[in-house]
Every structure is written in structure tokens, then in C-alpha cells.
Amino acid sequence: MTNSKGLLALAALLSTTTLASAETLRWARAGDALTLDPHAQNEGPTHTIRHQMYEPLIIRDVTGAFEPALATEWAPSEDDPNVWVFKLREGVKFHGGEDFTAEDVVFSFERAKSENSDMKELLSSVVEVRAVDDYTIEIVTDGPNPILPANLTNQYILDKGWAEANDTVAVQDFEGGEITYATTNANGTGPYILQSREPDVRTVMVRNEEYWGRDQFPMEVSEIVYTPIQNAATRVAALLSGEVNFLQDMPVQDLERVAGADGLTVKKAPQNRVIFFGMNQGPDDIEADDVDGANPLADVRVRKAMSMAINRDAIQQVVMRGQSEPAGMIAPPFVNGWTEEMDGASVTDIEGAKALMEEAGYADGFSIRLDCPNDRYINDEAICQAAVGMLGQIGVTVNLDAKPKAQHFPLITDGKSDFYMLGWGVPTYDSEYIFNFLVHGREGDIGTWNATGYDNDELDAKIKSLASNTDLDSRNADIAEIWKVVQDEALYIPIHHQVLNWGMAEGVGIEVDPEDQPKVKYFTMN
Q1: DSSP helix/strand/coil, 253
Q2: Mind spelling out the 3-state secondary structure of 77-114?
Q3: Which of these, 491, 431, 421, lies nearest to 456 by C-alpha position?
Q4: Cβ atoms within 10 Å of 292's Cβ, excluding its own
């Protein structure tokens, strides 16, 4: 049933733009950007909104290929294998009218490497960023780094003077609840300029008529009105009524209905993202269970049993209506290091799982809290609800606690969840990205999303070596060895790879981006 109150509120909210010019993109999805601060959160929907206003040195186009943004050329230095040289785009201005120069790049990278930044893992190999002249920078790495450019596609550049003038040189402490000027304001070089920002309500952006790429890209959208709508029925009703003309996070139960509606179309593609459960296996005891003085998740037999209890085919068929692919590893097929053998490794075996539970000393099971978002992934809460019943078959009583992503993610990054859902996209298309964030022990700038408590010094050293190993055969062999440990130790419970479905008015022209990050400068409006 449609949430009538939500629909009326949405209609009022969009009253100023409903039936506006065909150049207005009325865009909705389940959740909002967590912050506009360029470096405070490494989260998909947050990146998506920032990409309209801010730019990195390099971006990926709709096919996933590299495309020049604020850098026009990049290559390893001919004189030093530890240095990458980037030629910057000349004549670019920030939205405030300031000139873009190498000084802004150096400032932005130093900011991205700072303590509160959620982007610092991607720069963990970077020793120094230096300006050679106004339009040339050098990035010095700790040993040769053949994949450095792949780590830069979400590293945004902001104006140094603007940050200083607005007391936002430091990155927002998002986990600490800090609000800064950069939280709700932006000054980038991107194709769209922020006009207004009401977090969790509406964000309006207008076309940057002075954008350096104004004549290189379609740029047919003159205004973006972005509205987060958590309720799935309300979201679809808004698309069907014409109040929204572009919808991400299409509810799978409404795909046929939308596809069959006059004037609407649904486009789909595999997403570069995997959904999984994490388990805090490090401590001797955990808070979220009912076992005194012990941590059942510390036993690999329990972790494997829990994975064996999950019926991924049932989730695919019933919860996802066929719009997912069961996963056996926490890497999407797009990623270097993924193998069909590992991805097919997850099997459902209730009797085998019960035997492992008994062998581990938990024949009578235990109870545990599962932390789950309810506005981030496709059917996230419904997946968690399905898992509750499946784990109950082996005696694991799950108490589900679902909440918005703004409250859910800090539980993971702050190490306050023992059992949780997480999804992971891989913008670098390389396993190192997964290992740095999810497998390496928490240490300085690395492992910030690894809430499993797993810490293996030997494995960590191998992970760090990936950044500087220029022998690709040797590097791939190391990646395979790391994956073997991850799989053998059952660090995570893979669930599935997401399939993207975007709903849109027939006049809206765009192909589905596997990163689920539409860049509006590519849109056409007919």
C-alpha cells in the first residue's frame, strides 16, 4: 500500500519543480548523501552527489574506463619509479570564481590523508604530493605503485582559499557528529553548482555555465532536484505520477509495473558491489550475544556454519525477485582477483552447519544482535529479516536492529557492532581496495572498515606489498594467496552481488553505471 502521507509530503516538497522544464532532472533514491565534505565519508550515494559538484583528477566514464577530469595526462616519472607526474587542466575555475591550480591539488590530497578523512586508505602509499608548477604535480609513493591512478577517481579537489576562509581546512569528524561549513556547502569545479541543501529532504543544483567541459559533454540537464525517499512505495508512486523522472534504488517488486507504464522505462546492469555480513571474531568475549565469557564468532566452525545456513538462492528468488547473483566471496566479478571457483563456494547445508555448531560446542546455539541498514542497499532490511529465519534453523537466534545508514555505518567504523550487514563496491577494480579496507588489521590509515577484529601481521605485510609490486604475475599470485586466507578463515559471510535497476522517464537518456554513480553531465533530455 502506498504511504499516502509520504506521497503528499513529497508532492508538496516538489511543488516548485513538478512539471518544470524538461531540462530539470527530478531525481530520487532511498537515501541521501551523508555529507558534502569531500573527504569525510567513502560511501556510494555520498560520492554520487559530490561527483556533480566536485571533481577528482581522473574519473571513470559510464563504461568504467578512465577519463581525464582535472588532470589531462598522467604517467610514471621517467626519472624516478616512485613518482607519478600529473599534468593539470588549465583555465579551470571553482564555482566561486577562484582559479584552479596545483596548490589546490596539494592541499586537497593532504586533507584527504588527514586523521578524520575516510579516504586516507586510498592514499596509504603516498609519501608526498608536490607542485612542480601551477599545472604540474608529482605524487611520490612508498615504492612504485602501478595502480595509483585507480585510487584517485573519488579523491575530490577543493579550493584551498575557500576552505581556509570558511574554517574547513580540517575534515569533518563525521563519526563524532561534527557539523562544519563543508557539510552543507560546496565549492568545486564540477558541472553543477549547489543552490540549496536540506539534508534528508532536498538538494538542488544548477548547471555550471562556466564548466570547462560545457561543450564536451551533453550537459542537457539545467537543474537537478535530488530527493531522498526512504519508503519504497512512495518512491515508485513519485515516478509513476511524474513527480520524479529518474529513480535509483528501484524496488524489485515494482520492476514489471514500472516497465509496463506508459512513458517510463527500466534499465538494468550488474553492479560492482557485493553484500555480506561481518562478524567480530577478534575479542575473547563480545557484547551482542548471550554467551558469557566467550565469543562464539571467534570459532571458524561457527562462522562457517552461519554461512552454510544462509540460503542465497532463496534470497535471490524471494527477496530479490531474481535481481541478484549469489556470492561466495566479497569481491564482485568486475574485480581483479575474483574467480568463478571462489564465487561459487557458498553452499546451503543445514545438517552440515548443525554438525559444525555441535563440534564447536554450540549445539544449543546462542543469540546475537544483527545490525542492519534500512536505507542503503536494495532490500537491505528484508535480506536481514530472511537471514534471521535461516540462522534460526541452526540454533542462532538473531535479534535484528535495523536503522538508517547514518546511524548504522558509525557502528562499523567505530567497532561497536559484532554482527552487521555491509556492502562493498570496488572503484579501483582491484582486490587491493578490498584488502586495505576490510581485511588488513586496523592500523593508522588502513583497515578502517574492518570490524571483524581479524589481525594477521603476515597477511598485512603481503597486503601492503601489493601497492608497490610491479610484477603483475607475482602480484596476482599474492592476491590469490590473500583470498585463500580470507576464504579459509570465513572472515565474512557473502550474500550476493547486486543488480542495478534504474527507472526513468523515456525522455531521460543515460546508461546504467556499474558503480551506481550516475554523472548528470552525461545525461540527455528529450
Answers
A1: helix
A2: CCCCCCEEEEEECCCCECCCCCECCHHHHHHHHHHHCC
A3: 491
A4: 6
Residues 6+ apart with CB under 8 A from 435: 463, 466, 482
CA dist., res. 30 & res. 235, Å (int): 8
Query: What span, in angstroms and rounded, lies between the C-alpha atoms of 77 and 197?
Result: 42
DSSP string, 319-354: ISTT-EEE-SSSS-TTSBT--HHHHT-----HHHHH
Q: How many CA atoms lie within 13 A of 102 on its CB side?
A: 16
Say how far apart CA 81 and CA 75 lie, in whole Å: 10
CA 470/CA 141 separation, integer angstroms: 13
- Express each pLDDT in 397-448 by its tens digit: 999 999 999 999 999 999 999 999 999 999 999 999 999 999 999 998 899 9
CA distance linking residue 200 with residue 39, whole number of Å: 19
- What fold is seen in the domain 272-498? Dipeptide-binding Protein; domain 3 (3.10.105)
Report yes or no: 52 and 192 within 8 Å, Cβ to Cβ: yes
Residue 356 has pLDDT above 50, yes or no: yes
Contact between 166 and 154 (Cβ < 8 Å): no
4-245+507-525 adopts what CATH topology? D-Maltodextrin-Binding Protein; domain 2 (3.40.190)
All 3 cell numbers of residue 164? 581556509
Q: Which residues pair with 203 in a beta bridge?
A: 197, 226
Q: What is the C-alpha separation between 494 and 411, in angstroms, rounded? A: 20
What percentage of residues in the chain have a pLDDT greater than 90? 94
Q: Are 175 and 112 in contact (CB under 8 A)?
A: no
Positive or negative: CA dihedral 510, 513, 516, 517: negative
Residues found in the chain: 526
Report domain extents, the chain.
4-245+507-525, 272-498
Residue 61 pLDDT: 87
DSSP 8-state code for residue 296 = G
